[in-house]
């Protein structure tokens, strides 16, 4: 499985986030647990979980507009529900789109399908500059 998403983001690649599925308004990602991503208790660090949600939600929003070449986070809210031990999956769904602002929601789950974190976010879509 190729590390990264559909646009080059070095930090995403460094973490090892992989794109599993991208359809209009829906993105699914995978992150394999590794020592470098752990907190002091041996589970995946909360900041990594938030990053995974951020990428999933922003990517779901970007999937609605093929001309868009990026998205920046305006607001991200995360509720941590359970400890993230082992590999995790994230799903992001675009809920509402304006001309350049997207609202998305999603969750991070473990391999058993248990919800570990839920999140909502607002993103501004970025477009290439006209020549």
Helix and strand arrangement:
Layout: H1 10-15, E1 18-23, E2 26-31, H2 46-62, E3 70-80, E4 88-97, E5 101-110, E6 115-126
Describe the structure in your own words:
A 6-stranded antiparallel sheet has the order 1-2-4-5-6-3. The mean pLDDT is 94. The chain has one domain (10-126): Thiol Ester Dehydrase, Chain A. It contains 2 helices and 6 strands. The chain has 131 residues and is α+β, with helices and mostly antiparallel strands. A hairpin with a 4-residue loop joins strand 5 and strand 6.
Number of strand elements: 6
Number of DSSP helical runs: 2
Task: Tell me the structural class.
Answer: alpha+beta
| Number of individual domains | 1
In short:
The chain has about 130 residues and is of the alpha+beta class.
Keyphrases for this structure?
single chain, 131 residues, alpha+beta, Thiol Ester Dehydrase, Chain A, six-stranded antiparallel sheet, 2 helices, 6 strands
């Amino acid at each position: 499985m190729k590390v990264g998403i559909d646009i080059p983001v070095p930090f995403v690649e460094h973490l090892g986030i992989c794109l599993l599925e991208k359809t209009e308004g829906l993105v699914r990602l995978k992150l394999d647990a590794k020592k470098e991503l752990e907190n002091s208790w041996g589970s995946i660090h909360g900041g990594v979980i938030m990053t995974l949600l951020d990428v999933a939600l922003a990517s779901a929003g970007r999937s609605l507009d093929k001309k868009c070449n990026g998205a920046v986070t305006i607001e991200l809210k995360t509720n941590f529900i359970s400890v993230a031990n082992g590999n995790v999956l994230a799903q992001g769904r675009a809920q509402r789109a304006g001309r350049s602002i997207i609202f998305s929601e999603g969750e991070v789950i473990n391999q058993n399908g248990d919800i570990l974190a839920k999140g909502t976010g607002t993103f501004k879509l970025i477009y290439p500059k006209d020549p």
